[in-house]
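Morning - cobalamin inputs below, output right after.
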Amino acid sequence: MTDTNGGENDAEEEVEDELLLEIQQSIIDLEEDRTEELTKQAIDEGYDPLDILQKGLTKGVKTVGDKFGRGEVFLPELAMSADCMRAGVQHVDPLLADLELDDEDTGGKFLIGTVDEDIHNIGKNILITMLKANGFEVVDLGVEIPNEEFVEAVKEHDPDILGMSALMTMTMDHQEEVIELLEEEGLRDDLKIMVGGAPTSKEWCEEIGADGYGDNADAAVEVAKELVEEHRAAKA
Ligand code: B12
């Protein structure tokens, strides 16, 4: 199994930078305009777009998610935090699109979707931007993809990698179910499988027999590159 925890851009790291902390706080305060303004300021000041994304925006939205989990805020606040996130991401996204992690262009084909009963797509879409920036051809199936639809899409698109995003403990089992279905259809060994999303982990990836995990988009792209190479080498 291939994985990485994201190295220097690890979202779990303690953030000390004032502006990044302000970006986090603007999401916690649900001030969408402020998030947008501060994100633009950070871009103008030359901050690394991955830092803005991971140490600012993502940490902020996850804090609101934690409060929601503890019953301290409710669905309207959760939705507003997503609006804040998007207000920032729309400005970071074009920079991510230009961000090649290295010179190597593997030219891999990545099929991706969010699993059934799950509508979360902000993280998936960020990952897609970064995969494309790194030379991947991406087929995005969208959200709430039934297990069988993943299998049909694998048959249709013949990807190097299938990626499944799941943001909820009650939907992550679909990742395992899709792998089982692919096994039943004799397709499992013809592709690499990556899993991601907040409740997933390296351990979960191993447990369900996936090939790779990434806890953020740049880590995931690095893993994807290795897996494409492995896949191409095995096919050669
Ligand atoms: C924003 C948000 C929403 C938004 C989603 C908007 C959208 N279009 O995506 C809205 C308000 C709509 C929403 C709805 C709900 N949500 Co919500 N939501 C969140 C929140 C706060 C942030 C998610 C997010 O965007 N994070 C930012 C991105 C950048 O990070 P990310 O998604 O993790 O993605 C990164 C990595 O994980 C990785 N990655 C992601 N996908 C993949 C895939 C692959 C293959 C790989 C390799 C890597 C990878 O790369 C990404 C980029 O770095 C989370 C809290 C959290 N801790 O995640 C709760 C959370 C996921 N939601 C939760 C819940 C319960 C819900 C609702 C059921 C609430 C309700 N009562 O209706 C509904 C779900 C409806 C449904 N059927 O899906 C819970 C789930 C709890 C659980 N244990 O399962 C959470 C954890 C909040 C909580 N603590 O309670 N939500």
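Note: Strands lie at 2-4, 109-114, 137-140, 161-165, 192-196, 212-214.

O.
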